[in-house]
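Narrative of accomplishments. A recurring question from our advisory board has been how the design workflow behaves on a single, concrete structure rather than in aggregate. To address it, we present the structure tokens for one chain from the evaluation set, followed by the sequence designed for it. No filtering or post-editing was applied between the two.
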């Protein structure tokens, strides 16, 4: 049978374009050459057509396309332009080609090319299908609407025409290469190596119509306004300012520390910058540091070499020349704008003189990073870590944002005024102004820093408010540019940034006017709605990044960290200032107060748990619940009749640890007769992410714990969970389950579940007349004192593990026996035998059923115990079978018969009750007469 040969992957892609109605043809993927008849070498350049007549042979005929890519399977896909797109007009492409002039140092970035085009057209380039080229350029696909005049043809943007330099038009008679073509590069042709990739949309996405102003600019063939282009500005070096006279030697030293720390932090940011943000970060960091050099507080050689070294550590795809050009662009701008040292010095003086309730940190504010306005009041006391229980604090407090609010706002305005007037530019403004205070987790949504923790509950409202503030601040950016002056005036002052965008006989539009107009435009609902969404990639984090340190817990006034100090085996704790970098999302409901007492709590717990060992266990269990460790692998069941204090104690501890606790329905932990499907949402489990204590309430009579889930939750293995309508993520289990019950649920009988469950008895019942309705409120008022008990309990657990009082051992043992009817049956009615001794499986099962009926050991379902269950449980207990004519249990003997428990009609024999409890009261049965 003949088999069809599939085209290459690129051939398949070419067919898909043809089915859209786009004409394609094969282009060379690398440089090649041959010798002609005259013996001369002819170069065949990469990206040139394979076919003789080039773009004129472009076709949508599938047979021709299959033949081409069978002959040239790696050929790049050339797309002919100028064709009509249904009723949307003719297809054309704007080709943005970023360049760097090595001789002059001039650089054309994508942002500057796009900005120049938008300035010339006085309109925003629409978002449409776009392709990233191997040379880091961008092809933007647009259509020329019908009735818009002469059809566009190929044009190149040069110094001598009205198109921006390095912005070309590809239209009728031209072509572009489309994804997923791969160019292997060309040494002689200069073609860049790499793959063409979709930047926005995919091959089947709609192409947007170009604005009329863009069409008009592309049709016009005249010279650029103003005749010849302005000469390129020669690189200049601004002399370094002397320090102001008001700054003495001591403040000069503080300023130099400030600048050196700023240099270190900017180098860290450069090394950590991700793809897509690397060049912008490098340019911004160079600008900021150069402004400190120009101000005279930083050595130019040290600063420049540090920036260059950091850039080379994270070059991306840039070569050394490109890195140096990006640095030079920011550096020269920074040298022209020295930092105002008077403002920085004033901020430092204010900070050093500010009274503090804690030890003052020696850390200076970050000089190059403005502190975005916090979405909620933040903690001003970034003090040095305190030391308790012999553990010295060695962790830095979080640095501030870089001076007072006025200075920070001015720096942000200055930076943001340089961003593009686009939705993406607004997203960059949002990141610049508020990026420290927001993070986006795809599986959760937004989180906002509220001064103590990353807050999920209030994040959406705070994000919206920050978006509004970002857009309103564009007006300040316009004012800053306007007040800087017109840079084209002969006597323009240094740092002038305004310029004429458009001039008519009746009006002049300045760049500051354009910024101001963009600010008003950005206040529309559509522009506001997309800012946070576009900022998401800049601020993305993973669920696993948060609450990752199991030994840290956020209290109302400190972050408390448990650990073992270096050089000792004695556990201790220390207090740390709140810190964004800890990525904590939770907050307890109590403060740490070393002097706090709790006399009411002590009397209460002493009455309901008079055994000191039991109180020690409860404090160790509560302290263990302060941490995210599950190393003890225990599940606690508090059991006792009502009015015994168990719920009061559990509720008090859960309230104290606040966000770290969670109430969960008992149905999450009981066997409900069906397993979750792999794709089911698990909102009940997802809600437990990052929790430390999970409490659950009374189960129904006859309920049975889900042994598999209990083992999974106490075993430490990550679990895949998801919230409703959200993707799955891996949840690290950090919580311990505490169940309070007046009725004991059933549990499994295997060793794995037995070693995990601990039953804590609450045997004291408080009479009605002695019960205090206000007790819970009184205990909450003593929360800080109770916390001190739990901290000591946690240290005891870290040192010795969870204690096991005799009362808990006995209660747990009884509980396990109650849940093991087969174990009791075997102990009473079966004895070990010789290897050759056997009991028929069906007969032993009948004896068990008779005993269970007599003993009242009914199945929770009310149905008789099945033989399948009986056989499986016997095997779990290590008993083995052999098959001859029937299945028989080997190595055991039956001590009882069916007749010992029920008569011939199946009625219970009451008079056998006493003797049947004694395994030794009967001799071994005759295997031939078990009845």
């Amino acid at each position: 049978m003949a088999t069809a040969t599939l085209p290459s992957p690129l051939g398949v892609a070419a067919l898909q374009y043809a089915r859209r109605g786009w004409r394609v043809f094969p282009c060379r993927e690398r440089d090649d050459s041959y010798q002609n008849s005259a013996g001369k070498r002819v170069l065949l350049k990469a990206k040139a057509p394979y076919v003789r007549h080039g773009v004129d042979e472009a076709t949508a005929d599938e047979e021709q396309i299959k033949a081409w890519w069978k002959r040239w399977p790696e050929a790049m896909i050339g797309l002919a332009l100028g064709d009509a797109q249904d009723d949307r007009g003719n297809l054309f492409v704007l080709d943005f080609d970023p360049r760097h002039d090595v001789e002059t140092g001039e650089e054309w970035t994508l942002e500057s090319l796009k900005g120049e085009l938008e300035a010339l057209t006085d309109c925003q380039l629409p978002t449409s299908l776009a392709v990233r080229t191997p040379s880091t350029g961008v092809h933007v696909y647009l259509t020329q609407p019908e009735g818009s005049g002469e059809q566009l043809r190929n044009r190149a943007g040069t110094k001598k025409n009205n198109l921006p330099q390095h912005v070309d038009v590809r239209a009728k008679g031209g072509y572009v290469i489309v994804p997923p073509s791969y160019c292997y590069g060309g040494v002689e042709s200069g073609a860049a190596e790499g793959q063409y990739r979709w930047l926005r949309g995919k091959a089947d996405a709609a192409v947007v119509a170009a604005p009329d102003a863009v069409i008009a600019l592309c049709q016009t063939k005249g010279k650029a306004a103003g005749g010849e282009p302005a000469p390129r500005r020669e690189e200049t070096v601004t002399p370094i300012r002397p320090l102001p006279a008001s700054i003495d030697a001591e403040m000069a030293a503080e300023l130099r520390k400030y600048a050196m720390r700023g240099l270190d932090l900017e180098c860290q940011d450069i090394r950590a910058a991700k793809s897509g943000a690397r060049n912008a970060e490098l340019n911004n960091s160079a600008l900021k540091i150069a402004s400190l050099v120009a101000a005279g507080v930083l050595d130019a050689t040290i600063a420049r070499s540090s920036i260059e070294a950091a850039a080379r550590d994270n070059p991306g795809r840039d070569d050394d020349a490109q890195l140096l050009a990006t640095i030079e662009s920011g550096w020269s701008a920074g040298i022209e704008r020295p930092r105002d040292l008077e403002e920085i010095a004033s901020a430092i003086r204010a900070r050093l003189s500010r009274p503090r309730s804690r030890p003052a940190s020696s850390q200076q504010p970050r000089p190059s990073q403005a502190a975005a306005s916090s979405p909620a009041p933040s903690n001003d006391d970034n003090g040095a870590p305190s030391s308790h229980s012999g553990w010295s604090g060695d962790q830095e407090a979080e640095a501030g944002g870089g001076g007072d609010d006025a200075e920070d706002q001015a720096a942000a305005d200055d930076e943001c005024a340089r961003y593009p007037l686009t939705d993406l530019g607004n997203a960059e403004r949002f990141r610049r102004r508020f990026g420290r205070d927001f993070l986006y987790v795809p599986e959760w949504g937004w989180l906002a820093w509220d001064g103590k923790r990353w807050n999920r509950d209030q994040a959406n409202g705070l994000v919206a408010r920050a978006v509004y503030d970002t857009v309103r601040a564009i007006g300040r950016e316009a004012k800053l540019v306007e007040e800087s002056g017109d840079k084209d005036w002969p006597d323009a002052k240094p740092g002038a940034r305004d310029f004429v965008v458009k001039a008519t006989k009746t009006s002049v539009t300045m760049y500051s006017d354009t910024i101001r107009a963009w600010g008003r435009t950005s206040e529309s609902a559509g522009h506001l709605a997309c800012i946070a969404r576009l900022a998401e990639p800049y601020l993305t984090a993973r669920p696993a990044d948060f609450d990752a340190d199991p030994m840290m817990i956020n209290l109302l006034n400190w972050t408390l960290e448990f650990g073992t100090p270096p050089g000792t085996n004695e556990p201790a704790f220390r207090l740390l200032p709140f810190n964004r970098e800890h990525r904590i999302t939770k907050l307890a409901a109590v403060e740490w107060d070393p002097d706090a007492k709790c006399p009411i709590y002590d009397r209460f717990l002493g009455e309901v748990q008079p055994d000191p060992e039991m109180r020690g266990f409860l404090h160790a269990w509560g302290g263990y619940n302060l941490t995210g460790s599950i190393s003890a692998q225990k599940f606690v069941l508090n059991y006792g009749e009502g009015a015994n204090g168990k719920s009061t104690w559990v509720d008090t501890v859960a309230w104290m640890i606040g966000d770290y606790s969670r109430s969960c329905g008992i149905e999450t932990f009981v066997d409900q007769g069906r397993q979750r499907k792999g794709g089911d949402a698990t909102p009940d489990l997802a809600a437990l992410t990052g929790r430390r204590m999970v409490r659950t309430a009374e189960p129904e009579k006859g309920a049975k714990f889900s042994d598999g889930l209990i083992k999974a939750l106490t075993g430490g293995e990550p679990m895949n969970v998801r919230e409703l309508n959200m993707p799955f993520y891996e949840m690290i289990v950090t919580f311990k389950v505490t169940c309070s019950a007046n009725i004991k649920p059933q549990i499994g009988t295997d060793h794995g579940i037995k070693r995990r469950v601990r039953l804590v008895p609450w045997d004291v019942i408080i009479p009605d007349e002695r019960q205090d309705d206000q007790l819970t409120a009184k205990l909450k008022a003593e929360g800080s004192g109770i916390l001190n008990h739990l901290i000591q309990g946690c240290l005891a657990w870290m040192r010795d593990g969870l204690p096991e009082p005799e009362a808990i051992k006995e209660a747990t043992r009884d509980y396990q026996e109650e849940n093991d009817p087969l174990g009791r049956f075997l102990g009473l009615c079966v004895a070990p035998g010789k290897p050759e001794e056997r009991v028929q499986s069906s007969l032993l099962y009948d004896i068990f059923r008779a005993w269970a009926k007599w003993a009242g050991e009914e199945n929770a379902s009310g149905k008789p115990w099945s033989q399948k269950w009986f056989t499986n449980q016997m095997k779990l207990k290590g008993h083995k079978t052999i098959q001859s004519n029937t299945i028989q249990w080997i190595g055991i003997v039956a001590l009882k018969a069916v007749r010992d428990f029920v008569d011939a009609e199946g009625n219970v024999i009451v008079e056998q009750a006493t003797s049947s409890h004694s395994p030794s009261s009967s001799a071994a049965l005759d295997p031939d007469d078990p009845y």
